[in-house]
Amino acid sequence: MRQAEQREIIPVAPDGAVRELLALSAALILPLAGGALFQEAAVPDSFSVIAAVEGSLTLSSGQRYALLEPGQAAAFGPGLPCELRAVTDCLCMLVRLQGDAAVRLLEPGVFVRGAAPVREAVLALALLDDERPPVPGEIASARAYSMLLKLRGSRTAPEAPALVEAAIAIIQAEFPFLEGLDELAERLEVSKAHLSRSFSQKIGISPGRYITQVKIAYAKLLLQDEDASITYAAEASGFANANYFAKVFRRETGMSPSEYLETVPRRKNPPIPSGPALW
Question: Taking the CA atoms of the chain, what radius of gyration do you get in angstroms?
Answer without folding.
Answer: 19
